[in-house]
């Protein structure tokens, strides 16, 4: 790529020159793929129980609320235009789910 550390080149330009995707799109696609596996698990499995568990209402610490995996996932679903119920239904069909996870990753690209 012949880029020196002295050159002022934006990260997006470096990614484009190298033919790479932003890390955020890769993470979003893998998060969706993992969700598809979790949804298809039997109900008694600990991973599925953790996905569906909602903590008791209580007092939180002062400051900005922590971003959770579930909250990030809901943001991704909202960005693609899905609800949780549609997501569960779509995950049962592996071909549709694979297309959806690829769509989610393209939505997260910053190019």
Principal-axis shape: extended
Number of strands: 0
Which bin fits the share of residues in helices?
55-70%
The ordered H/E elements are HHHHHH
Specify the number of helices.
Answer: 6
**Biggest pleated sheet:** none
Rg (CA only): 18 Å
Strand content: under 5%
The structure class reads: mainly alpha
Which parts are unreliable, with pLDDT below 50 for 5 consecutive residues or more? none
Average pLDDT taken over every residue: 81
Distance between the termini: 19 Å
Furnish the topology, listing elements before pairings:
Blueprint: H1 11-18, H2 23-40, H3 46-52, H4 69-80, H5 84-91, H6 94-107
Helix pairs in contact: 2-6, 4-6
What does this molecule look like?
The chain has 111 residues and is mainly alpha-helical. 60% of the residues lie in helices and 0% in strands. The chain has helices at 11-18, 23-40, 46-52, 69-80, 84-91, 94-107. It is extended. The two termini are 19 Å apart.
């Amino acid at each position: 790529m012949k880029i020196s550390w002295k050159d002022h080149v934006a990260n997006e330009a470096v990614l484009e020159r190298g033919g790479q995707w932003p890390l955020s799109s890769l993470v979003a696609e893998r998060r969706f793929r993992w969700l598809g596996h979790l949804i298809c698990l039997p109900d008694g499995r600990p991973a599925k129980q953790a996905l569906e568990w909602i903590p008791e209402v209580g007092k939180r610490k002062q400051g900005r609320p922590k971003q959770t995996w579930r909250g990030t996932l809901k943001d991704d679903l909202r960005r693609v235009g899905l609800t949780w119920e549609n997501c569960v239904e779509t995950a049962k069909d592996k071909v549709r789910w694979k297309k959806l996870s690829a769509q989610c990753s393209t939505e997260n690209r910053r190019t």
